[in-house]
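Why do we bother with holo predictions? Because pocket geometry can differ from the apo form. Keep that in mind while you read this record for magnesium ion.
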Amino acid sequence: MVLSVENLSKSFGANIVFHDISFSVNKGEIVCIRGKSGEGKTTLLRCLTALETPDKGSVKINNMYLCKEDSNHIKYAQKNELQAIRQEIGLVFQNFNLFPHMNVMENLMEAPLFLKKDSRENIKSRAEELLKSLELEGKEDSYPFQLSGGQQQRVAIARACMLNPSVLCFDEPTSALDEQTRGQISKIIRYLSSKGIAIIIVTHDNAFADEIAQKIITMKDGKITIEPK
Ligand SMILES: Nc1ncnc2c1ncn2[C@@H]1O[C@H](COP(=O)(O)OP(=O)(O)O)[C@@H](O)[C@H]1O
Ligand SMILES: [Mg+2]
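The structure, written out:
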């Protein structure tokens, strides 16, 4: 099991987004999270990736606690450990969030260079390899505004893969794409899962979820139901 969510709750003021939800994800598993707009799908992904702090419960990645409840407070892992755990779970944002002033290669190299993951040379060759596997060869020097939506999304995926995550989350990956690009994204997601990366996809695209998911989690009224397929 790579991800284990236990008794997680999150409210914004009086707005209970979700309450006491638990689920787990295995290595290479593809899980879809669906639910109507406003049911808390993005908030859940943000809690899993430490962009938002839950109120209660715990998130465990590769048997290390990202955060857990300790005498009624959420405590994150210690600083050094936290950095390592956060690298294990990546997020591809709905609007991709590429750095607009950096070209494709710079977008990919920024985080691993900052985190001193490896030598510049090795980081660059890893980026080249990923760009090749995502059919982005020749786009190294392009800026995000020069790319199509599908290409920007693949750059965002490549960037998220630079840190070798065990889990990759996608927020509404098909919402901005046409039919053809949608087919491409399912191919890429299957490829990543075949490499052992666990995939969590938030989507309200039921056909896409039915086609790709091994497990479907539905969020409704602050609760989840889990449907293995
Ligand atoms: N930063 C925030 N501050 C206050 N309320 C928020 C914040 N982010 C989300 N919400 C509220 O939490 C609920 C769930 O939002 P969200 O997770 O974006 O839903 P979804 O992604 O399923 O459409 C909504 O009622 C939304 O208004
Ligand atoms: Mg959302």
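The pocket of adenosine-5'-diphosphate (ligand 1) is lined by residues 12, 15, 17, 35, 37-43 (CB under 6 Å).
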